[in-house]
Amino acid sequence: MTLVIIGPVTKDLVIIGDDEFHKVGGATYFQSFVFEEFYKDYLAITNCSDESLVNDFPDLEKVKVIKKEDTHFFINNYPDKDNLDIREQSSNFANIPISPSDLEGILPEKIDGFVINPLNRYDFPVETIEYLKSFDVPVFLSIQGFLRLPDVQVNENYTLKLDSFDKLDSILSNVNAIFMDESEAKIISVGYDVDEIVITDGSHGSRIICGREIKIDAVECEDIVDTTGCGDTYMAAYVSYRLNNYSIVKSGDFASLIASEKLRNFGHF
């Protein structure tokens, strides 16, 4: 059985104060390092035009590329290097959707579950989400991409704004868990009929709604180096523990610990 994580890999420019760094990014990329450590039977499927980006993944034998005509590009700007909870993002908003036909023939025969990581509204059409649900295995979904829209154009990129999505109800039906941050939770109702709603809030910790609300404290990190990908790391750690039958509380505490470990490093966990 294999856990399948799906979503774009990105070219990232990270700006922290006066320092600039280029690196590989994307939720699926960050999560692959967590699964490599804690849930080794996984397959990462990513869509991009620049296939060289996958060379940075931890195990190339566990990566499949859906070749597209473009690659996601993100600028993650942290203007105050002493407060990395504040991030200004912009993107090229690549329109490179993953279709069911893209996935046919590359999915493993036996699947433990899906982790779905859209970076914008184009990445996963509704028919693709429905196709993945048809396998009748657990589905864990990051909500951020479905809420992102281009706002102000800056050179070839656009700043991001968040807004509700009229197809979100059908996308979230029969999903086991959804993940978002507090800014995204303000955009949508958290009353969806989903088993677990996980809401992260940086250094303020996280909360999990599962019939009741559980507060998960952040694990203190004094030497924060890079927060990009921290939410993706949290999600992967949480999924790893839940699929190994740990409780929601233990999974949240573990995810908080691994996210804190990621903060100490530039790049991935």
Task: Give an overview of the whole structure.
- The structure is a single chain.
- The protein has helices spanning 27-38, 100-103, 126-133, 144-147, 168-172, 182-185, 230-243, 248-263, and strands spanning 2-6, 10-16, 19-25, 42-48, 63-67, 72-78, 88-91, 111-116, 139-142, 148-154, 157-162, 177-181, 196-200, 206-209, 213-216.
- With 269 residues, the chain is an alpha/beta fold.
- It has one domain (2-263): UDP-N-acetylmuramoyl-L-alanine:D-glutamate ligase (3-Layer(aba) Sandwich).
- The strands form 2 sheets. Strands 5-4-1-8-9-12-13-14-15 form a 9-stranded mixed sheet. A 6-stranded mixed sheet has the order 3-2-6-7-11-10.
- Strand 14 and strand 15 (213-216) form a beta hairpin.
- Helix 7 (230-243) runs antiparallel to helix 8 (248-263).
- It is globular, with a radius of gyration of 17 Å.
Map the helices and strands.
Layout: E1 2-6, E2 10-16, E3 19-25, H1 27-38, E4 42-48, E5 63-67, E6 72-78, E7 88-91, H2 100-103, E8 111-116, H3 126-133, E9 139-142, H4 144-147, E10 148-154, E11 157-162, H5 168-172, E12 177-181, H6 182-185, E13 196-200, E14 206-209, E15 213-216, H7 230-243, H8 248-263
Parallel strand pairs: 1-4, 1-8, 2-6, 4-5, 8-9, 9-12, 12-13
Antiparallel strand pairs: 2-3, 6-7, 7-11, 10-11, 13-14, 14-15
Helix pairs in contact: 1-7, 7-8
Which stretches are poorly predicted, pLDDT < 50 over at least 5 residues? none
Portion in helices: 10-25%
Mean pLDDT: 92
Please identify the top-level CATH class.
Alpha Beta
Q: In percent, how much strand structure appears in the residues?
A: 25-35%
Please identify which CATH superfamily we are dealing with: Ribokinase
Measured distance between first and last alpha carbons? 24 Å
Report the total helices. Answer: 8
Main beta sheet strand tally, sense and closure: 9 strands, mixed
CATH-defined topology? UDP-N-acetylmuramoyl-L-alanine:D-glutamate ligase
Class inferred from helices and paired strands: alpha/beta
From the 3D coordinates, which CATH architecture would you assign? 3-Layer(aba) Sandwich
Q: What form results from the Cα inertia axes?
A: globular
Estimated radius of gyration: 17 Å
Q: How many beta strands in the DSSP annotation?
A: 15
